[in-house]
């Protein structure tokens, strides 16, 4: 049975993350008919189509939204179904010299464009040339594009090609790297009231859904600290009213806090806090589950405390690198509802099953945890690795202002790339005697062993564990420079200098991701409520200018407090 999902990306940093995510997924596509079938059902997030030349396409089932100026050389309709003409081909004043494109040359007026077309990133230039080279049977070695220093926007490293209806641009605002132009949540809600914008966007969503045989729901990334949060809230209301399906949201916070026009530093902080608080208050009523994402430990008033991820070295302020880390979490954590044949294994195979498991007692906010790469030594068995953890957490938190301790945790865990032959020593091996004394030796696969580990290390908790054999693919333009020198060519840790020397060439990596619900998350909500309660709305007139009344503001703050109370420890698991 089909289980399609429609994905939304709203905002610039969301598109940074999404671009990496789609790149990662396409890196795992295998066109070899003799290869082992993939465990992942790519048709859940992708759709098959045809160009006008009847060439088969496979593109993300996606609607993305950003401001004018982010697409650079790519037209709003994308470049998959309609290839733009080479400027050199049409650099003529004589219509008769135009290429044969089906027009009557005597009726064509040539108007020369004065502005230079946007410059392509070298990677995009080479992608264009590579498509020609591959058609001629030529292959080129990978180059070092120094993406971390040269990427100016997400389009620079996008490998994926999109359906014409996927790309949506807000023309009234021009993207700026210095200031967020769509500043407040109320401004985003006002944008939704624009009939033409709303009608076009929702019609594109409807077309995607009508193509599906069994759409199971929606997943959405959106920039939470600026006006895109308002667009997300209104879109969510529309999806609930029209379709009533499961909705999993990821409010994202960039590593560098957005600033706003005509606002000093304290005002910038206050605008971000109000945007976030109002968004969280409404998400608690509207969505099935939401999981805030950031590589920064604190994001409410001050954006600070970059998370330390073992065996990863990254620039905390770099959008290209930090978004790759968050995309790695998404690619791993969502495997639970993206596997082939998992519809026969129960409700856990569906988006609604994941959301239902983690949102008991109205706790609709969960936290993200990631182990990337999974820190297993190249010569170590999983049973020994888990035994030696000695109570340490497997994952690092990727949700801002979130701490998940070891009691009363409900979680969905996905592991990938942990081979079955690294589970434990076979019974006939001499080295197996010590392992056989461990209770975990009875486990017959990776899922069982992780499940057993969590049952022993977390008090009164519940864990759903999914495991797949295939590791996460690592291909250009993913930032391979993130990995510490101890990460070997196969993605496992090693002290072998020969294996370490292969780092630039390794192609995959084991990973583990968890979406967790715990009473501890109430502390972050309480901190957010405390921050927003200190702010007088009258001192930020831009909210009132877009229609936010004082009484509505106070009602949202009260709703946020009520939402926080769902995390108080006055229930039984």
From TrEMBL:
It is found in: Mitochondrion. It comes from the Eukaryota. Residues 3-128 form the Misato Segment II tubulin-like domain. The keyword Mitochondrion applies. One of its GO terms (cellular component) is mitochondrion. GO terms for biological process: mitochondrion organization. Gene3D superfamilies: Tubulin/FtsZ, GTPase domain. Keywords: Mitochondrion. Pfam families: Misat_Tub_SegII (PF10644), Tubulin_3 (PF14881). Belongs to the misato family. This is Protein misato. It comes from Anopheles merus (Mosquito).
């Amino acid at each position: 049975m089909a289980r399609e999902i429609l994905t939304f990306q709203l905002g610039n940093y969301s598109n940074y993350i999404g671009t990496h995510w789609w790149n990662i997924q396409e890196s795992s596509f295998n066109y070899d008919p003799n290869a082992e079938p993939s465990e992942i059902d790519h048709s859940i997030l992708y759709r098959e189509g045809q160009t006008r030349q009847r060439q088969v396409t496979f593109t993300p089932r996606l609607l993305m939204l950003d401001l004018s100026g982010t697409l650079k050389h790519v037209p709003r309709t994308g470049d998959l179904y309609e290839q733009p003409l080479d400027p050199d081909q049409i650099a003529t004043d004589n219509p008769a010299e135009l290429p044969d494109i089906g027009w009557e040359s005597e009726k064509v007026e040539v108007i020369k464009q004065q502005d230079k077309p946007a410059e392509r990133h070298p990677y995009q230039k080479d992608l264009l040339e590579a498509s020609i080279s591959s058609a001629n049977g030529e292959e080129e070695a990978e180059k070092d594009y120094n993406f971390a220093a040269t990427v100016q926007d997400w389009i620079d490293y996008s490998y994926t090609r999109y359906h014409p209806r996927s790309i949506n641009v807000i023309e009234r605002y021009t993207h700026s790297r210095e200031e967020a132009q769509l500043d407040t949540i109320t401004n985003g809600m006002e944008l939704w009231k624009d009939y033409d914008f709303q009608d076009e966007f929702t019609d594109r969503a409807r077309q995607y859904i009508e193509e599906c045989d069994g759409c199971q729901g929606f997943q959405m990334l959106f920039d939470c600290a600026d006006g895109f949060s308002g667009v997300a809230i209104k879109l969510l209301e529309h999806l609930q009213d029209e379709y009533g399906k499961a909705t999993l949201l990821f409010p994202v916070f960039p590593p560098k806090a957005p600033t706003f026009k005509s606002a000093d530093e304290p005002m910038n902080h206050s605008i971000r806090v109000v945007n976030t608080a109002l968004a969280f208050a409404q998400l608690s009523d509207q969505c099935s589950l939401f999981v805030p994402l950031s590589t920064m430990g604190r994001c409410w008033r001050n954006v600070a405390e970059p998370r330390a991820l073992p065996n990863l070295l990254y620039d905390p302020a770099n959008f290209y690198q930090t978004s790759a880390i968050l995309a790695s979490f998404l690619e791993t954590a969502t495997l639970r509802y993206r596997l082939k044949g998992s519809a026969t294994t129960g409700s856990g195979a569906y988006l609604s099953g994941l959301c239902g498991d983690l949102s008991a007692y109205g706790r609709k906010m969960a936290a993200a945890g990631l182990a990337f790469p999974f820190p297993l030594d190249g010569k170590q068995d999983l049973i020994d690795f888990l035994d030696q953890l000695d109570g340490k957490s497997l994952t690092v938190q990727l949700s801002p202002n979130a701490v998940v301790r070891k009691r009363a945790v409900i979680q969905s865990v996905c592991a990938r790339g942990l081979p079955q032959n690294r589970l434990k020593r076979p019974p006939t091996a001499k080295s197996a005697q010590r392992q056989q004394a461990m209770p975990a030796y009875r486990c017959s696969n990776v899922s069982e062993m992780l499940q057993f580990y969590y049952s022993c290390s977390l008090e009164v908790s519940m864990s759903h564990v999914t495991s797949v054999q295939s590791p996460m693919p690592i291909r250009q333009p993913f930032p391979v420079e993130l990995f510490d020198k101890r990460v070997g060519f196969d993605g496992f840790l090693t002290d072998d200098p020969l294996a370490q020397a292969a780092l630039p060439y390794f192609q995959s990596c084991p990973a583990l991701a968890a979406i967790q619900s715990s009473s501890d998350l109430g502390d972050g909500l309480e901190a957010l409520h405390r921050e927003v309660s200190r702010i007088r709305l009258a001192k930020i007139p831009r909210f009132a200018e877009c229609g936010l009344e004082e009484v509505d503001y106070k009602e949202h703050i009260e709703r946020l407090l009520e939402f926080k109370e769902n995390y108080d420890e006055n229930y039984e698991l």
